[in-house]
Amino acid sequence: MKKHFTTFMMLIMSLFLLPISVFASAENPIDKMGEKMKFNWSILDGADFIFSPVSILISIIVIGALLFTIIRVFIRVMKISSGKASIKDKWFWIEVGVIFLILFFFFSGAFFKFLSGIYDWTNNQDITGTK
Questions:
Q1: Is the pLDDT of residue 72 over 70?
Q2: Domain residue spans in the chain?
Q3: In the chain, N or C: fewer CB atoms in 10 Å?
Q4: Interhelix angle for 90-108 vs 110-123, to 10°?
Q5: Distance CA 61, CA 69 (A)
Q6: Helix, coil or strand: residue 30
């Protein structure tokens, strides 16, 4: 109990000391923190040596997932034709549909276009107010 109380008191005291430290300096420390903590996206420009093997690995995984899903559907159709499974298995068809939708996003490039849009949006944000 004593350890938790001490931790709680340290937390409360640090919360009360934070506003005092803000007014102690002439400049706004939040602006300084924003300048130091803003992510520099330009460091990724020279990282092609990392992204090329990663893209090859992602391509292999996506193609493998597509083949695995097609094989699962083929096995399900064979079980349905032999009477061992029902075509009305709703969750199987929902799962297959979602997997095909995700794979479609990868194959069509929509997923990477979405990631590119997020990258462009975050790169253009002015969280520090300097622009």
A1: yes
A2: 56-114
A3: N
A4: 60
A5: 12
A6: helix
